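General statements about sequence and structure are easier to judge against a single worked case. For one protein, we set the task of working out the structure tokens from the amino acid sequence alone. The sequence in question and its structure tokens are set out directly beneath this paragraph.
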Amino acid sequence: MGKIEVNPFYCKACELCFPVCPRGILGPGDVPNEKGYFTVKPDPDKECVACMQCAIMCPEGAISVYRD
């Protein structure tokens, strides 16, 4: 399994990562970052398969995926 980390400084909430996640783990956050974007937030109740598709899709390089 894997773990997704989103760097709120770089995330611009473009949501390009949402549809590429096979588990639907990523969704909109509820707290804006310092730039005013509601950054992406992984759902803690869903398991990541560490496919890296979200990190590959992110144009800002804000997503990191770690394998357990």
Summary: Residues 2-67 form a domain with the Alpha-Beta Plaits fold (CATH 3.30.70.20). The chain is about 5% helix and 30% strand.
